[in-house]
Amino acid sequence: MAAHTTMLDFHLETSVITDPIQAKNAQQLLSSILSEWKFNQVMVIETQPGFIIFYQGANATHGVIHVYSDGYATVTLEEGVSCKQASGTVVSEAAKVIQKMILDKLKLKRIKSYLPMKRGGPIDQFITTSDNRLVEYDFDKVIYEGDSQYQNIKILHSPSFGNMLILDELQNIAESDLIYTHTIMRHGINDYRGKEILILGGGDGGLLHELLKENPKFVTMIEIDDMVMEACRKHLRSVCGDCLDKLKGDNYEIIVADCFPVMKKFIEENKTFDYVFGDLTDIPITDSPHGEFWDFMRDVLELTLKLLAPNGKYLTHGTGLNSVHPQEMYEEELRHRSVPLEFRKFSAHVPSFLETWVFYEIWQVPPQLSNGSVENGDKRILSR
Amino acid sequence: MAAHTTMLDFHLETSVITDPIQAKNAQQLLSSILSEWKFNQVMVIETQPGFIIFYQGANATHGVIHVYSDGYATVTLEEGVSCKQASGTVVSEAAKVIQKMILDKLKLKRIKSYLPMKRGGPIDQFITTSDNRLVEYDFDKVIYEGDSQYQNIKILHSPSFGNMLILDELQNIAESDLIYTHTIMRHGINDYRGKEILILGGGDGGLLHELLKENPKFVTMIEIDDMVMEACRKHLRSVCGDCLDKLKGDNYEIIVADCFPVMKKFIEENKTFDYVFGDLTDIPITDSPHGEFWDFMRDVLELTLKLLAPNGKYLTHGTGLNSVHPQEMYEEELRHRSVPLEFRKFSAHVPSFLETWVFYEIWQVPPQLSNGSVENGDKRILSR
User: A14 CB contacts (<8 Å, ≥6 apart)?
Assistant: First the structure.
């Protein structure tokens, strides 16, 4: 079983709730409207001013009307439905008529009705955006689900986005999201021909696949979770092409490992890269820049800086556009690295994220500039 | 005042609700958890099997736990908040702990928690998608609101999408949506150089602005609502450029009128167009192809067919990708026109719609082909 929660809200005149007679009338009017839809009043709680009325409906439904102290009022009706039932339930149909009746009988100008929250269905349609907006997806099929030793891996199909990779309940990439890979690459702006490239993470294979089209000298990818790669190799082929079919190609190698020891080995070997891609976790959404995710991010950044060739660039995804404070904290972190850094921010609406995403390009300030600080368009030079 | 409605759901073992003793224990356990957060049980309704418990919370909050007959259970907690309060309310914070406590004490594997529904705020963040998904926008400012004699016109600002035009509560276009205009134009595929073009509707000016970049011979636009044009001229300049600043230019004219009499006049004058754009209402989302919107759509189509030059094309937006039945009904309509038609469908994710949108390119079957019916890729020839 699942449930649909149907909601309305509206404002009553303050006088309606401060005057006991008018308040009683409003209660009776609302209950008489709901009773026409077999929602029977079971209890009234006076909150003075305001009231809460609980209703039991037919077929084990329930409802609540809550009128707050300033006259703001909510109606919430809930109905158990079969897991397959997507819409057009009794309560959501009733809500349309109830809305009209309340509007007419209470002589209101406006009632807001919300689409029913479809809860408890066989596929969870609600994934959190970085800025805490409630968005409902259109997933129609679980293509793959598994738990690796690192994370929960899901690939769900959506008519809008094709197959979509979800790691620990976070949107990663879908077949609709070439814009994501092109934006992190600064496709058409950065020149990858003949370049040495390192990808940290990138298990969906999207970056590797798109970079290999640019005739690089060599791409090294370090991904810890081979279950992610295997799932994407099978179910996200329009994203990764055939590049995950084998771990080594003419001009690329995938190292299945934790990136830290490999990066340290590369540093010892004095290996450098023209481009390093940070395709690991996003900027953590926290109130302060503390905790294991921030430590991880700082460690990645420090090791990356040691691996960048003199004109090398570090490209990484940031977070959602509206998660402004995490971006500010990240940029503050960039100010406190072992070498002075410059960065550029850019953003793109990523279809399957239902959100606009921010990306960073970061590089070391050339020595002759490192005593000053300038702002130049979207490029900021940070000196300490 | 506004409200946040916070929801959880989970599944209890069927035995827990069919055995009266276990059911009573579960009730007591759930109420003891909620009471720690000052939600006091005010009433239990036994629905056998299953139960509904109503709670009154501190500060005029309320809650309901509903356990359905198969053990599916919902928790819904509501809290009045000030209109400006966006998140981090007492109840939504409590919900995180309540979630964990229920998980532990009832020994469950999984509880789904939903982001709170933010109801009744100063700007309505919920606009319906064509496929009835609940999506929350990030509007932060009302730029313009007015009622013309035809419709309610709103321009809201969103950090993600820039300024966004909303007509009668439906998403029209935002500054993020060049892809919309380019897709309806088949930008880069159709050649508009030296062509005669007619736009029906198009009051946001986006189509006119983009078409004028393609060196057409002349673009005629017929838009009924000059209040829409005035609002877009002021607040959507990145969409319409300066093309709405005057009604006539070297190679365009905007006729402020109902399109029907103008189209009929053009037909009488034997005027034809290489491209006609239908930028009026979308395909109606209804169960059957009846009612005034379908009549309107059929009338527009018939007049358009009379205005198309021999190789002319009619380009129009359809509806959301998942609104399959309305598309089928529309295509059935195309099969019953006065002349045999071919069409091609294409789609694009439109950022501000938070939805993938379907577009049509429609043209008359050349006479030598009109006795057959073929399917060729995405192009369908419809003969009667």
Answer: A49, A70, A71
